[in-house]
Structures are given as structure tokens and as C-alpha cells.
Amino acid sequence: MFKGIQIQNEPQYNARVTEIAEEQLGNGEVEVNIEYSTLNYKDALAITGKGKIIREFPMTPGIDFAGKVFRSQSDDFVSGDSVILNGFGVGERFPGGLAQKARVPADFLIKQPSEFSSKEAMMLGTAGYTAMLCVLALQKQGVTPDKGEILVTGGNGGVGSVAIMLLSKLGYQVIASTGRPEEKAFLQSLGAVDIIERSELSEPGRPMVRERWAGVIDSVGSHTLANACAATQYGGTVAACGLAQGMDLNMTVAPFILRGVKLIGIDSVMRPIEDRKEAWKALGSLVDKQLLASLSTVVALSSSVDLAEQLLAGKVRGRLVVDVNT
Hints:
alpha/beta, globular
């Protein structure tokens, strides 16, 4: 038996920390003793039942984890290897990382970069890895620091806070959008040069407005994404990776056909392994560990269920790292 969160849908939907039998581990070649996981927006939707995340019941949530290989039938990993998992349906279709153990296919895993401990890797987690994918997308589209300001929406969230830190380190002028203006000093400590209030972007707007952003990293969706596109400069790029405001996107094609704006979807769940390695290698060379620690809070597995509601309500700053052994 091992400890973990288990979600049931009978007699009613509920999530709780409990003892889980080894027989309920997933199928795969590699068994991992998990050291740290995270609490992401998707995990919170799964735990609360406010999103249709779970595909099979019972299910252990947790879309990522870091730990050490305990047993392996794969030539790519041996006992003692430090590994990371992000996505691949873990915590949705396969038992996830909010537990002390996992068994997964070898091709779901990458070796943990030597620059990070397991705790630091999960301070980044899927949110940090997704933020890096967004930054790389902007760079590959020629959005360089001299082109102008970069808008990061959801600035206090996991993706947003790491994106601000990374972009600032690379020399970009970052403007953060947030619904919590009282967090201005925190966002500036990460590297934002200024903030705008969420309300400036979150209501229906015009098809196009004055050009401002050279690039955008958006984790919010809905009207916020539409308004971000409407204000993007000619030839600019918008990297969209989230839907905190909603899945809808009510806008015209005007920014795309009149200004050549590029809207790029960033998928982190099924991303090819080589892209994952590229992102984690870049994180290893860019991350300021002191700043990373300042935007991260380590919590016990036992408190994760209660924290899910707070995360969905926008009351959590930065990253929630889960010590699964407490």
C-alpha cells in the first residue's frame, strides 16, 4: 500500500487522501518512487469535479511528478535514475503523480536535468515546462527583445509567473496582466516592468485596436486571448496555452489577415520527447533558483484537496509544489 489522492464518482464525486493498493498502479515498464508533484489548474479541476478531466474511475490525479526509478524493465532507465514526467494523460487516463508511487511507460519519462533537484524540477513542473515551450515558440517566430513589449496574461498563475521570469532573463520587456493588482511588487520582482489589470482584457472588445504587443503568452483564453490578438503588432506572435477564463474565442480574422499575426497553440500533454528535452535543457540554463523559490510554495499531500478550490478561485500565487511523503 502507498499513500495518494484517489478520486471516486460513486456514490458521488469525491477526492480524498487514502491508502492505495499496489494493484492499482498503472501499466508500464518503469516504477517510480515519487518525491514531489504539483497542484496545477487541471489537477484542481479534476479534484473538485469542476472540469471533465478524469476519464476512468477510480483515478489518482496529478499531471506531473519527479522522483527516482525503483524498478525498470526498460533499457533507457535503471534503478536510481532521477526522472520527470509531464502530461501524456497521466492523472486523467492513467494514475498520476499525487501519490507516493507510479508505474508508467518508459516513453513518458525524461531524465531529470542535473541542474535541478526533484523539488526544484517540480517548482517548475508542467507550468514551467509549458512556459518554456511558449517562450521558445516566440523565439522561433523571430520575436526578439528589440521588437517590443511582451504581454503575459494570468501573471500570478503558474505558467504566467514562470514566463515572466524567463522572458525577463532573456531581456524582454514584460507587461503582466493580473486580477490582483496588489501583487504588483511580486510580479516586478520576477521581472515584469509593469502590470495591467485583468479587466482591461477580460471583456468583449473591438476586432483590432492600436498595435502594442510584439508577442503574447496567454494562459487565459476567451475574451482575454481575443483582445490580446487585437492589440498584437504586425507580424507578431501569440502563444496560447490555457483556458482559465474559458474555451470560447469570439473574434474576427482581422488580426491574422490584416496584420499577419500568428496564433500558435502550445500543447504540453502529448509533446514529442525531443521538444520536452529542448525545453528542460533551456530551463536549466535560464532559471534563477532564488526567484523560482520565491514563486513556489511547498505543501503537504494531505492539504492538496482543500487547496484545489483556492487555486480555481485565483487565490494562489505562483506554484504549488506537493511533497507526496507528508
